[in-house]
Every structure is written in structure tokens, then in C-alpha cells.
Design brief:
57 helices, mainly alpha, 68% helix
Amino acid sequence: MKGEMDKIVSLAEEESTAELQKYLSSLTNDQFASLFVGSPPVSSEGANRRLLVYEHLIPLCESGDLQTEVAADIIGLLMLETHTLPGSSLAKLANIFVDAIRVGKMGSGKSLELFPTILTALAACEALSYGKGELSGEEYKKQLINSLCSSRWDPQCVIHLTTMFRDVPMSSEELQFLVEKVLRMFSKLDLQEIPPLVYQLLLLSAKVSEKWRVRNFLNSFFALLQTPLLIIQILVLRNLHLEVQTIPQDQLRHVEGTVILHIVFAIRMDHELGREFLKSFKFVFLQTSYGNLCPFSVALLLSFARIQRYEEQVFDLLKGAVIRSFKDEQLQQGSKFLQDVLPGHCSVAKMILDAVKNSVFGWDHVTQGLVQLGFVLMDTFGPKPGPFGKSTEGPVSAARTPQQQACKLGGQMLLQGFKIHEPIRGEILEQVLNRLVTKTASPVTHYLDLFSDLVTSAPMILLESSSKVTETFDHLTYLPLATVQGLLKAVQPLLKVSMSLKDSLILVLRKAMFSSQLDGRKSAVTGFLLLLKNFKVLGSLSSSQCSQAISSSQVQVDVHSRYNSAANEAFCLEILSSLRRCLGQQADVRLMLYEGFYDVLRRNSQLASSIMQTLLSQVRRYYEPEQDLLPPIKLEPCITAHGDQVFLQEPLAHLVSCTVHCLMWLQNAQRAANLNADDSDEEEEEEGYRAELQAMLESMTRRMIKCELEDFELDKSAEFSLGSSVGVKNNIYAVLVMGLYEVLMEYNFIKANYNKSRFEELLELFNKHHKLSEILKEKSGKGRAPSHKTPRSLLSMGFVSTLITVLFRDNSQSREEALSVLRSSGEFVRYALCVAVQKIQQLEESGHTDGPDGQHSDKTFRFLCDMTSVLMWRYTNIPAAVEEAGRKEKRCSLSQLCLEGLLRIFTTCQQRYPERMAQLLSTMEDEAEQDDAAEMNYFYIRQFQRALFTQLSGGEEEFNSREAQLLVSILTVLSRQLKPTSKQFTQMITWTVKICKETSFEDSAFCKGLLSLLFSLQVLYKSQTGLLLELCQDIHSQLGDIDQDVEVEKQSHFSIINMKTATTLLVLSQVDRVLDEVDWLITRKKTQTASDKPASAEASQAAAQQDPVEKAVTLQLGTLLTALNELVQTALLPGNCTITLLRELSRTYTILTTLVKYYIQMCASQHGYLPNRFEKLVKLSGSHLTPQCYSFITYAQVPSPSDRFGDDKKKKKRNEVNTAASAKLLRETKAIPNLIFSIEQYEKYLITLSKKSKVNLMQYMKLSTSRDFRINAATLDAALQEQEEPEETQESQETEEAQEPKQKKRKQ
């Protein structure tokens, strides 16, 4: 043993350590143990020898020259002997470790296992020399840890060090310091090292308080990972300047996925951590900026939701964040004031969609949460059922409200998830189909859209789950008709590639045809018609109209092959035979059939013979073949009676309309096709039914012209009351006959080919129609409750578009003579315009119109373009003087009808075709050759501006209020197309302000529309508080003061404000909007302040003075208080205006209270400092507004003085009734108590703020009025005088004092 020791000592004294290391590595553990035994620690020589062994063995183990097992055994032996070392030796060893870590010599981390043992032994020492003094072992350990955390770490040893520190006993402060150091090292690590480091850090931070651990560790980590590009860029700089594209994205995503797994595992093990984690996220979501959110954090939350106890909380959190984000975005986009104050908005929706996109990189633990969140959003924010189960939200092309956007986001999540994650496809499909079947009481349009997108994106994948679709078919009979239509349209691509699916659907539809429920039979007709449209037979005419409504590039199937076409033909003929049974069912079922036949024929022209034969046989039932008999149709079979009730059995006009349109389409198509002589047999057959139908229609036209209303028993003496069966029958007859006249008008117009005599016949048909229409209007108007609604016209939209075009814009000489026949009839021209407006209105409300091509979106848009051009030309080119004769009649002029049509077209286009508005405008005029869409839009805006200016220039007697309102509405719609930053928008708002300043017409409806336009422009241009102040001053000036002795200074910023047009309610609605914006800003500032760290007094004061949000809020409220101060002194009429003003005042004080609470919160961090602006605001509210509020409350509670000055007893009684009703309304709404409570709450928190800030804010507040018991001395004196001297009552009424008792008596 002594020889070995001497050998080691001699080798240690040499300069080179290589020989020593070689010799030591040859020794065994037993020899090392004996070495320690031979070096007793009690002697200084033994202690030094032990230290020497430690100093040389530690680098040896770290070098990697030893086998792993040998190194582990040596470290284990050293750990056992560490407690025997003296304090000075321990200190030296600790410093060796610290120095080695600093210079990066601890790459393998094998010897780091010894470091915790050394630090623990060091902490147990009583005193150690440190510099010139001494430190306790614990203090020395703190200094070492502080020195270590302050020094530079080699990135390779970060994980080893973090693992090592788990075994070091440390205080909470030391742990926090260490964790912060590790967090700072994240950006310097390789991506692959981040997951294990996160895991070690979670284990290490288990010793820290939960709140600090979550708030600091997780938030800091998110801040690093929310910008993966930052990490990539850091890696690029360290990896020999590699390009960003060479860093694989999948590697980064896999790292994030592994980190998520580690964090969720830690939460499963420690539920206290989970609770703090949720609190942290709630705190982040409360901040309206969502600054710490990123796709990674969303994915982490969704993984977190897999833990059942947190599932509901997580989805509530995400759901609230989504809807709040959309609302904030909408608020900012709709206000220039908010856009100027705050930067761009951070979209939560984009983060969620990015999380879905990133989940393709093996994030299987996220997918279940994605599915659940998608359905939660769609279930919560989908369309809600309105009255009678109808949807409250009409189908529009773009999601507009926050709820619609949230629902759309849910659909996008599910669609993307379906595309990229195979395991969840079955669940998504099953849940969608389940909702279609079960949610019969509420609209399911959003689920139908999603299902359609799923089919279109992956039809072959859906075939794997065809059994689920087949199960859904079994419920078709019980589903609402709209759901059935949407579902069957969506599955069309699947039916073309799956025979089993098609067969099961046909079986279900056949059963539904005999259903006891009417909706079930209508569903069967819908399904059969859709099949006929989409299973094309070989040889059908190819035309642009024959395109498939639903197509999918993924469905590769040859439906035009010889085998398929034969099968399709047999299949379609079989369906047609089933549909013929419908001709004996209720009118609703027949109507669906007639409306669907045209589209079937257009897409499947080989079925023409069967369809036309079916229609012909049906028409024969009601056609009178005897040419001399009138009328040519039999109306009795068209109705049926059940007890005392009469019902429509056959919609005859729709039947003839369908027949006419099918016939005309076939003639045009076959004329264009020029069929070969080989098909002579088929052609002869077609010629047969065509000739017979044409003869029928010609005879019907001739005889209907000869018919008088008496022939239909519908003359003026007939009863049309809906209260009796005879009246109902006559109403049904009248509608059928009017519809028939319309169908024949359209047929004869097309057949006439601009022949004068045929147009004269058409006009005679119209005269009969008009006469019956007038009788129907007259009779229905006599009842107490006129329930008559103009029946929907059977003219097709394409025909109406052609008709008004030729009436107004056809200048060809060859047609002049014939068209003059139609143009000469003013009633016919008016009728054409009225039907055009009716069709546009139907398109606006439902998205489609009746008749051929009504469901074809592109064609209806083309018709809209044609109509827009004609209506615009008619309005701008025909002077109003031409229509002076018609102005005496109590109906709107043709120009007004044109304007109404244009307004509806622009509104429809903005809702249904928002991206095609420029295309619509470009087709309006040949003159408008504008390349820029904004310039073209403004070109038409200027035309309507000129028209309105002409209206306003003519004087009040010639002013047409309705036309002016329509012009303002059109300007409002078109102005939405302008960008707020464009010069056209600036010109538009300048013009609107000028009109408001110069117009003084006493027309309240026009004034309201014009001011609404002004407000809608102003809010996108700049803050509107200045505008509100001027309007409030004008209203005060016009209506007078609540104190009759006060003479209000005459101000007139806007001439449009006068006694009749003082639209206080409209102004107050804008006040409410301003308060919304201010409230949102204050809430945002409060959450930001809560998350900010306290700053020094000087820094806080400087920040408060310069804070743009606080400044903007104070200025907005200051101007608003001044405006309300004007209104609260105004002698408003009792009723809604007064109550609304009281409510807005109450809300204003509530928001002032919120602002005061914010400054109370700020006082803690800003050492009691208040900005000067805020003090001025408090002064304004206390010295000006509050006293006037109390005066207004007194004014509102006392009856109006004008009620006492009426000699007319009826007027006096009416005023008393109105006053009583207003007083009752005031009591029921509790507006006054709410306002008083808001004022007192405001003053209460002002007192608190005064104490906190050491600023006396209450000096501006005046003592509030006592409201519980009031004695008016003047009133009391007058009452006593009235009792003592009744003969002097008349004289006393002339004085101010005597008016009060009069009021009190009336109030009693």
C-alpha cells in the first residue's frame, strides 16, 4: 500500500498528469478504498492527500477515458468519503467545480453527481474563511450558487446542471434565481435538448411555490416558443450561417409536441400545478392584447383538456377567448378612434388554426381537443331558432357577427382536422350526422355546410364510412325539409360512386313517398328531383346550363359510358314513374314537383319526352277542349274542401308556368342543336306534344282575353273575406287566374317576336290581370285587419329583366312600333317595375327566386346586373317633371320604384355577392369606364349625390321625402365600399357634413337617415364626440331650456336640426357607442396594469403623463360630459327620450366610476400620482354635470307645463293621458333611482381615491339634493291662496308660482 501511495505522490509531483491518470485508471475500487483508509482525515497530511485524490479523480471521470461503470463506482466512493473532508477542502473542491463549469469542462456531466454532496457537506460547516473574514457554511454555499448562476454556462452542460441542482438543498429565493438562469439559456440550446430540459426544470421547480412556478416558468417559456422563427434564427447564426429554409419545420414541431407531453404529464402528477396553470391562462386571456398566446400555448391547452377534471374549464376559457377576440376585432375595425389609440389586434382564430396545422407533426394528444373545441364553437355560436322555429340569421355568404365568425372557425377547425388526421375522421363524421338528425328544432345550416365541405374534400374517405350515411338516410322522413335538401345536395358526389348508397337512398325515398307526414312526402320529391338532375343520361344536350350543381374533382367516375348511361336512363325513368304519383297529392307536393321539372329537363334533356308527356296529361285535366267555351280552364277541380275549410288542390298557374318554360327551353335548345334526320321517330313524337301544347296555349290566350271576371265568378260583387269559405275560395280562384294571366303574358311576349298585334294581345291580358288585382286590393282593404298580401308574381326573373330592358332602353327602329304599344300603358310599365322590385326583394331575403334559373347563383347575378343598368338609366335620364301627373295619386312614382329596386340590388349584392360589387357597378353604365373600383364606386355615389341635391334644391313643397330617404339609404350602402383611408371617403364625409349644415327641411325621417349616414362615416374617419357636442348644442338651442326663465343662446351648427327633427334618440345611440369604446379601453388598461410590475415614482409619473390610452379616454369623456351637459338642460318631451337620456347618464357615471377604480389601482404602483387631465375631468363632472342631473330629475318628475295651457278639452284630456303614461313608464323603468345610485357610487369611490392619492377631489362635488321629502314654498303659498281666494284663481295662473299647484293637482 505504501508503495502505491509513493508511486501516486511521485507521479503527482511531475508536470505531466498523463502518467498519473494512466496509473490511477489501472487501480481498482478496493485499491482506491484502501487509499482513503491510509489517509486519515484527522491529520493534515491525510486530508491533503484525500483532497489531491479528489482533484485528480474528478477530471479523470469527466474525461471519458474510463469505462462508464468504473467512473460511476469511483464517483460513488468519492460521495461516501466527502463528509470526512474538512471545510477548507470542501471549499476548494466546490470552487474547482465552479471553475470547470465556467470554462465548459463539464460536458459529460458524470462528475456532477458529486457536486450536490459537496455542497450539502459544505452547508453543514460552521465557519469557513472567505477573503479576509469568515462565513458560515450555508452562506458560503449561497455565494457559490450565486457565482455559478451569474457566470456563463456551456449550453452542453445545462441539462446536467439542472439535473444536478435537483439534489442540492436550496431556499426558495435560490431556486427562483436558478430557474431564471436556466430559462435564459433556452435560446442557446439545440432544439432536441429543449424537451429533456423542460422535464428537468419541471421537476426542479417542484420545490418552488406553485404560483411563482407557473407565472414565471410557463409564461417565459411561451414567450420563447411563440416565435419559433426567433429560435430558428438563433440556430442559424450558430450553425455556420445555414439558411432558414434548411431548418426542418417538422423538427421544431416535434420538439414542441414532446414539451407538451412533459408539461401535461407533470400536471397529471401535480393537480396544484394544474390549478395554477389554469389561473395563469385565465389571466393571459383577460388581457385583451393576448400577448402571451401562440399556437403552442393553444395546443398545450387542448392537450390539457384531456384531463377530465379540467376539460370544461379549458373549453370555457378558449370559447370565451375566441368570442372576445372577434368582438374586440369588430370594435376596432368599426372605430377610427380605437385604431389610432391602439395597434393592430392579435387574432386568436389564427393561432387556433395554426395549432391545427401544426398538429400534423405527431401531435396526437392535441387532436381530440381540436375536435371537441370545434364542435363546442359550432354548438354554442351556430344560428339560433327564431319565432316558429325559423332561423333568426338569414343565410349570407360571409360571416359578419362575432358569433357567426366563431361558428365558422369551429367548422374550419373540424374540416382541417378531418383532412390531416385519419383517426378522428370517423368521429367528426358521426358527430356531424348525429347533429343533423337530432337538432330538428334549431337551424343546422352550419353543419350542412361542414358536411358538404367534408364530402367535397374527401369523397373516397367518406365512402369508408358509408354505413353512417346510410343510417342517416333512415331518418330523412322525420327531418325538416331544409335539412333534407341540404343533406341530399351534399351527398350527390357519393351517390355517383357508390351503388349501395344510391340504392339505400332510393329505398328510403320510396317509403317517404307514402309517408303520413306532408314534410316526408316533400322530402321524397326533393330527393328524387336531385337524383334526376345529377344522373345524366347519354345524349343529353350539352349546354352551359347543363353543368352539374355539385361537382368534385376528386370523384373520378365515368357517368357517360355506354353501360352507365343505359343504367342511368332506366334509373331516371323509374324515378319519374314514382314522381307521377305526386300529381295526386297535396298542392305543396305538386308545387315542388313543378318547380323542379325545369331544372331536371335543363340538365337531363333526354328525359324531355317523359317529362313533357307527364305535364301535358296533367294540363289536359284542367283544360277545356271546347274552343267556344269560356273560361278555357276548369277551376273547380283545383280546390278541395274539408268540412267548412277550402284548400288549394292544384297550383294550376305553376303547372302551366312549368309547362311553358320547359317547352320554350326545349324549342331553343333543339333549334340550336339541329338534330339529324336519323331521329325522325323521336322528333315526330316531340313535334306531336309540342304542337298540342302550343295549340292549347294559343287557345288559352285567345279565350282568356275574351273572358270577363264574371266567367270566373270574380266580379266586384264577389266576396273575398278570408273569414268565410266562399271568400277563401274566391281568393284562391283570383290568385290562380292572376297567375295564369302572368304565365300567358310571358309566353306571348316570347312568341310575339316584337309583333305589334301580339303585343296588343299581351296588353289585353295585362288589363284583365290588373282589373282583378285592383278588385282584390279594394276588397281586402275594407276589412278591419287587411291581411291581403300581394301574391308572388309568376313571371321569371330572366323575363322581368328582359322586359324592363326593352321597355326603357331598346332603341332599335324595327321594334319601335311594337314596343310603343307596351310603353303607352303606364300601368303596364309600373307593373313591370313592381315585379322587378318584388323579385329583387325575394332574392335579398332568401338568396333565390321562383321560376327557372332562380336557384342558379351566376344567372341571378347576371339578371341583377342587367336590371341595375336599366333602373339606373331610367332614374337618371327621365326627368321628374314627366311624372308630375302621377304625383297626385297616392302611390310612389316610377323614379321612386327604380330607386327602391336599386337600393335592394345594392343591399343584396353586398350580402350575397360581396366580392362582386365592382362587377355589378361596372355593368351599370357604358360611360363609367373606370379601371379603379373605388373611382367607379364613387362615380355612382356622385350621381346619387346630385339627385339628392336636386331634391333639396327644389324647396320644401316639391320635396319628396320617400325618394330622398331612398337616396340616403343608397348612399349609405355604397359608402360602405369605400376605404376609410381613401380620398373618395374624405370627399364623401365632407359632402355629407355640408348637406347636414345647409339643409333645413322639417322631415324627421329624412333627417334621421341623413344623420345616420353622417355617424356611420364619422366613426370611421375620426372620433365623433366633437360632432355629438355640436348636435347636442343645436338640440338644446331648438327645444329650449328646462328652466323657462333661461334664454338659450341660439346656435345652429347643423341646419338640419330644428323643432321637428331634433333626433335626440339617434344622438343618444351614438353616445352609447362612444361609452362602449371608452369602457373597452378602460377594461383593457386595467388588465394591463394588473400584469405590469410596479415602477418607480418618477417613471410612473412620466408614463402616466404620456400614456396615449389614458389621454384618449379622458378627452373622450370630457367632450362627452360637455355634450350631455347640454342635453340634460334641454326641455325634452316626456317619454322615451327622457328615459334614454337618464339611462345614458347612469351609464356615464358607471364608466366614470370604473375609471376612478382604475386610478385607485394605479395609486399602489404610482405612489399616489394623478394626471392633471383626470382632475379636470372630475371637476367637469362635479361642478357642471351632476347639479344639472338633479335639476333634470326634478323636471322629469313634474308634468310638462304645456299641458296646462289648452282650452280645448279633448287636447287637455289627451295631454293628461300622455303625461300619466310617461310617468308610469318612468316609474317602471327605474331610470331615476339607477341614475342617483350611479352618481352616489361615483362620489363614494372618489372619496377613496382622494385618500389614496392625497388629492382632494371632493372639492369639486356639490352637496346632492335631498329627494325623499321636498316642500316647495311657492307651491305651498299658491295652494293656500287658492283655498282662501277662489275668485282670484284665473289671475294667479298667469304667475310662475301658481303653475306648480296646478301641476300637483293634475298629478293627483
